[in-house]
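Deliverable D5.2: sample structural annotation.
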Amino acid sequence: MAKIALTDVTTRNLPLPAKGQQTYFDALQAGFGVRVSQGGSKTFVAVLGKRRSYKTIDKYPSISLKMARQEAKRLAATHSSNSLERPAIRHFDAAQSFLEDCTGRNKA
């Protein structure tokens, strides 16, 4: 994962990987980067939360670098790391929910 100062010129001239995808992260804004595929597609991404989930913003050049940065900041501000985690449920409650679901769908 390379860190570079992303500008319009550097984004336009990012090298294509020989195989798969390569993500270039912005040195100026944490959690924001450009994913480049071997076919030449460039997509802005934001990395969110403790689990570092990738959220696609949009493809370059259909969205400008400035707008993608603003969207990444908005996503980071509104994202809660708890939203990706499952709510805690006790074993007894999970078993009850499972049995209720089964009795509704299965024959006696």
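Annotation notes: Residues 2-105 form a domain with the Double Stranded RNA Binding Domain fold (CATH 3.30.160.390). The CA atoms of residues 51 and 90 lie 23 Å apart.
The annotation will be released with the project's public dataset once the embargo ends.
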